[in-house]
Amino acid sequence: MLQFITHPSDKYTIAEEVQMAIEGGCRWIQLRMKDASYAEAKETALELIPLCRETNTILVIDDRVDLVNELRVSGVHLGKEDMDPLEARELLGPHAIIGVTANTEEDVLKFKGKDVDYVGVGPFRYTTTKSKLSPVLGLDGIARIVKATRDAGMDIPIVAVGGITLDDVEPLMATGVNGIAVSGSIINSEDPMLYTMKIMEKLLNINPSAK
């Protein structure tokens, strides 16, 4: 699976970014607008909702549980300093997708038995997308966390995130992750739609059911 994470760009609006990612075959969008006001984030989300509905694309919003609750989009992604996922579940109900962020084995294992839908593990490498960056994991770190998670009997989907490029798809998937989240390398490529298509081709070659 591929999740495209939006990020401010000098070249494109967020709606344009999402349109190109969807046209490239991505069916999972995370709207991330850390520095925007509630009104700004809502305005952008309202632009994205029709694009996602028309293409059966999942739309999750980073951090803003209140906005997810108001607009009833697919779900929310919660960072380590955001709302507790159990509280988010109570607010959003059983059908909402709730993703969480992790940087260590301990981060992931604390979600054992809790009602979360996926864990974003990273950063894989240095990235400018986040201002407060946790220690970089690399392939070995990602693989270590996947192994610890599975050894603990947790089958929760793990999504690698942080500075991922096209060349990283195959080695990252070989660590046992279930998917990847990509932002900057798509936005900053010469042709974001084509770049997304190439990522999807690699994912589909590895796992024909990937989206």
Gross morphology is globular
Biggest β-sheet description: 8 strands, parallel, barrel
Assembly classification:
single chain
Count of individual beta strands: 8
Strand order in the largest sheet: 1-2-3-4-5-6-7-8
- Class inferred from helices and paired strands: alpha/beta
**Rg on CA atoms, Å:** 16 Å
Low-confidence stretches: none
Mean pLDDT: 95
Helix and strand string, N-terminal first?
EHEHEHEHEHEHEHEHH
Q: How much of the residues is beta strand, in percent?
A: 15-25%
For this entry, give a set of tags.
eight-stranded parallel beta barrel, 8 strands, alpha/beta, 9 helices, 211 residues
Description:
- The mean pLDDT is 95.
- It contains nine helices and eight strands.
- It has an eight-stranded parallel barrel with strand order 1-2-3-4-5-6-7-8, surrounded by six helices.
- It is α/β, with parallel strands linked by helices and 211 residues long.
- It is 40% helix and 17% strand.
Give a summary of the structure in a few sentences.
Helices cover 40% and strands 17% of the residues. It contains 9 helices and 8 strands.
Annotate the secondary structure layout.
Blueprint: E1 2-5, H1 14-23, E2 28-31, H2 38-54, E3 58-62, H3 65-71, E4 75-78, H4 85-92, E5 97-102, H5 105-109, E6 118-121, H6 138-151, E7 158-161, H7 169-173, E8 179-182, H8 184-187, H9 192-206
Parallel strand pairs: 1-2, 1-8, 2-3, 3-4, 4-5, 5-6, 6-7, 7-8
